[in-house]
Write a structure and sequence with these properties.
CATH topology of one domain: Helix Hairpins
Order of helices and strands: HHHEEH
Shape: elongated
Largest sheet: 2 strands, antiparallel
Oligomer: single chain
Helix content: 55-70%
């Protein structure tokens, strides 16, 4: 799979392809060269999914109810809020 084709995939499509690759690699019935190619393709898909998730996280806003009503707060992953 080429990088240009990867960037056109939706998150769901990329995850589906990644799951198929993982399944093939876990079965262990592929030649070494094929396993290496599948691993490389899987890494590209994993990076694509990670990038798409980061884009979504930046767009998410949490609504927090206060006595004055709702306030918008930028998304912060749990580990950042706890200082980890």
């Amino acid at each position: 799979m080429k990088a240009a084709a990867n960037s056109e995939l939706s998150f769901e499509e990329a995850m589906e392809q990644l799951e198929k690759i993982v399944e093939r690699l876990e079965n262990g019935d592929v030649p070494l060269e094929t396993a290496i190619d599948l691993f490389q393709e899987g890494m590209k898909l994993s990076q694509l999914c990670g990038g798409k998730l980061e884009q979504v996280e930046r767009k998410i806003e949490l609504l927090i109810e206060t006595e004055q009503g709702f306030q918008k707060k930028a998304f912060a992953p749990m580990n950042e809020e706890k200082g980890e």
